[in-house]
Write a structure and sequence with these properties.
Blueprint: E1 28-33, H1 40-61, E2 68-73, H2 90-96, E3 104-107, H3 115-124, H4 126-137, E4 141-145, H5 149-153, E5 162-163, H6 167-176, E6 181-182, E7 188-191, E8 194-197, H7 203-215, H8 217-227, H9 231-240, H10 251-261, H11 269-276, H12 280-291, H13 295-313, H14 318-324, H15 330-341, H16 345-352
Parallel strand pairs: 1-2, 1-3, 3-4, 4-8, 5-6
Antiparallel strand pairs: 7-8
């Protein structure tokens, strides 16, 4: 079984879409085929990422915010009855349900032990492969994760495109589909109608791309802040709560720990040097040589990191946040923040906030539409 995979049983045309990025979507309705070989957990992980995007959109813009919908279906495209999916998946199916045509088709990873098994699964689902070709012809987006790319490529509509693939599939994929170019060292690739992720953990990247298309860059950035690991933001959030322990014993570590502990207090170089057990001149030299800036510059960075967190997750006023970050003068805070963040605090909050405007919050819970 070392011959190249040729989908001779599958309808082919010479149609090749232009290599252009996908335009913004007026809405995003995704069909998710469930095959016997589908790695169901990975498909559900993407659904959970999309649920998070919808939740953030509602928090930011209220119940009328645009959302992403999904629908589980069989290989022929027939929707699967939610109640047939079991008590744990049925609620997800009900939540994402939509009627009418889809705008995208998600090809989840196939749970296969090797490349021959992936080929066999692809050959066993010619109905789905035909449907993928029709979807491309109709302007729908095709989304593949890991070896789900085999199903997309077999449609014969994506020759000349680039695809993200795990390294261990590249040799076999190129042999089967020499007209499609794997993108080296790229975990997520958008080439015209084809959005691909190399590994199953790329679900968050796909969710971010779909959120950006369907809801705009601000909601996508909010989802990234909430779902993508960010050590700097996590450190700032803990620091704001006074929970950062001193885990290192060096001049810089002692100085930075002191700056974090006294972040909201007036800056005094002599006090920082005393905490680090060196002279002020020596402390300045350590910072310049190791970090390329002064202790005061570092303090401004720490304060602005805390300010970002507070702007994102609270409704406190700019003067209150300035005070919590060690600036008694709100104007000075605005200047420093703009220098570090590239925009004023109010503009940053508007773009990155995870909270809805104050008037949308209620003291007691209200049913969500």
């Amino acid at each position: 079984m070392n011959e190249p995979f040729t989908p001779t049983a599958i309808h082919r045309t010479a149609l090749r879409p232009l290599s252009l990025p996908m335009p913004p979507l007026p809405h995003c309705h995704i069909d998710i085929p469930l095959l016997p070989q589908t790695a169901l957990g990975h498909a559900l992980h993407l659904v959970e990422c999309l649920r998070s995007a919808n939740l953030l959109a509602r928090l930011r813009s209220g119940p009328a915010a645009p959302g992403i919908r999904w629908r589980f279906c069989d290989a022929r495209g027939e929707p699967l009855a939610a109640d047939s999916l079991g008590p744990f998946i049925a609620p997800l199916a009900h939540e994402g349900a939509f009627t009418g045509p889809a705008t995208a088709l998600l090809l989840a990873p196939l749970h296969c032990p090797d490349i021959p098994a992936v080929r066999a699964a692809t050959q066993a689902h010619t109905a789905l492969v035909r449907r993928i070709g029709i979807a491309v012809d109709q302007g729908q987006q095709v989304i593949s994760v890991s070896n789900g790319a085999w199903l997309a490529a077999a449609s014969a509509r994506l020759d000349g495109r680039r695809v993200a693939l795990p390294w261990y599939y590249v040799a076999g994929f190129v042999r089967d589909f020499p007209g499609i170019e794997p993108a080296p060292a790229q975990s997520l690739v958008q080439d015209g109608p084809w959005l691909s992720a190399d590994v199953a953990t790329g679900s968050i990247g796909i969710a971010l791309a779909l959120t950006r298309q369907a809801m705009g860059p601000e909601t996508a950035e909010a989802l990234s802040a909430a779902a993508v690991a960010d050590p700097a933001r996590s450190h700032a959030a803990h620091s704001a709560a006074g929970q950062i322990p001193n885990t290192r014993d060096s001049t810089l570590a002692r100085a930075i720990a002191h700056l974090e502990k006294t972040l909201e207090q007036p800056y005094c170089l002599a006090d920082v040097a005393l905490a680090a057990a060196v002279s002020p001149r020596t402390l300045l030299r350590h910072f310049r040589e190791a970090l390329g800036h002064s202790p005061l510059d570092h303090l401004h960075g720490l304060r602005c990191a805390r300010a970002r967190v507070l702007l994102e997750i609270t409704l406190e006023s700019i003067p209150s946040i300035a005070q919590a970050c060690g600036y008694s003068d709100p104007a000075a805070f605005r200047r420093v923040f703009a220098r570090h963040a590239g925009m004023a605090p109010g503009a940053y909050r508007e773009r990155h906030t995870l909270r809805a405007p104050r008037q949308r919050w209620r003291v007691d819970a209200t049913p969500q539409p």
